[in-house]
Design goal:
- This protein has two domains: 136 residues, 3-Layer(aba) Sandwich (Rossmann fold); 177 residues, NAD(P)-binding Rossmann-like Domain (Rossmann fold).
- A seven-stranded mixed β-sheet has the order 3-2-1-4-5-6-14, sandwiched between helices.
- 32% of the residues lie in helices and 17% in strands.
- The chain is an alpha/beta fold.
- Helix 3 runs parallel beside helix 4 and helix 5 packs across helix 7.
Length: 328
């Protein structure tokens, strides 16, 4: 029987789907007070020592995240950890990745993030800011707008988020170029180009979306030369990591109206400091790294965990398995 640690709120959602596993799992719950207990009896557990753990928003965004991290990474018995996130750069996740024999990620949040990108693009193309200003001033002013149809998108770091975004854009008649190392056809893109084509592709794009991970190669990739190569009326968006963008260079480029606007769900420092000029810049839209926070993302992560749990207990290969070397 395996000790399986999940948050109490998560268990309340998925308990009916765990029926029949009582002889295989000793489910240990952690509540928002950081108290651990057996799901079957309510008995308090002082040292949970999980062999399986599911880390999601309930655990990581709750008030007792420290208790969860210490139990998972410090228990000494962790065989498999299922993360609700796609990325692994967070120091807490790195700590868990080093402790776990097997570490799996989740990519269902890409659907919500694809919708975020489409929302920002439509708001920019349809003059959302101008219409809101006119409404506030009670001014009946018609405005020229643009369509997704016929627009050209460059998605840098074409993975699950890029594919989810690309499918939506293509359904509305847009043209999508995905940029990644591996070449060949990909769902959600009309074509795939390699990273060394970046500077040649930027001048063609009406929308440039960053979805790349933060690596030494991608850090600060969106710099002064990057922005100078973009169209004056193009939209720049970042759904990757804040460190991909040289923020002073972005602000200078926006002041020069190239690109026309920036929509950022991630910033170099989070939460964004009060004195950051990004807050008040008229050509910047900020969201607080919450593009993935939807009901669908929560249930999607639960589905990923339960699918992998069945595979784990059945001795089958786990989906979205990350190699140990990634945490070095």
């Amino acid at each position: 029987m395996k000790n399986c640690l999940i948050h109490a709120k998560t268990f309340a959602r998925i308990a009916p789907r765990l029926k029949g596993l009582e002889d295989k799992l000793n489910i240990i719950l952690m509540d928002d007070n950081g108290v651990f207990s057996k799901a079957s009896t309510g008995e308090v557990v002082s040292e949970p020592k999980p062999e399986i753990a599911f880390g999601n928003a309930d655990a990581f965004f709750g008030p007792s995240v420290r208790n969860f991290l210490l139990a998972v990474a410090g228990g000494g018995q962790l065989d498999w950890f299922q993360s609700a996130a796609a990325g692994i750069e967070n120091p807490g996740l790195v700590m868990i990745g080093k402790a776990a024999n097997k570490y799996t990620t989740n990519h269902t949040q890409s659907e919500a993030m694809g919708e975020w990108a489409l929302w920002q693009a439509l708001d920019y193309f349809k003059q959302g800011a101008g219409h809101r200003a006119s409404q506030a001033d009670k001014t009946w002013q018609r405005r020229e707008s643009r369509e997704i149809r016929g627009s050209k998108w460059l998605i840098v770091g074409f993975g699950s988020i890029g594919a989810s975004t690309g499918r939506r854009v293509m359904a509305l008649g847009g043209e999508v170029t995905g940029m990644r190392r591996s070449q060949g056809l990909a769902e959600g893109a009309d074509r795939i180009v390699p990273p060394d084509a970046l500077m040649a592709e930027l001048p063609k794009a009406d929308v440039v979306l960053l979805c790349a991970p933060h690596t030494p190669e991608t850090e600060g990739m969106a710099n002064a030369d990057f922005f100078a190569a973009m169209k004056p009326d193009a939209l720049f968006m970042n759904l990757g990591r804040g460190a991909l963008v040289d923020e002073p260079a972005l602000l200078a480029a926006l002041d020069a109206c190239r690109p026309g606007h920036a929509a950022l769900d991630v910033t170099l420092v989070e939460p964004l400091p009060d004195d950051s000029p990004l807050w008040a810049h008229p050509r910047v839209t900020i969201t607080p790294h919450d593009s993935s926070q939807t009901d669908g993302t929560v249930t999607g992560a639960d589905d990923t965990f339960l699918d992998n749990l069945a595979r784990y207990l059945g001795g089958q290969p786990l989906r979205h398995l990350v190699g140990k070397a990634a945490f070095d």
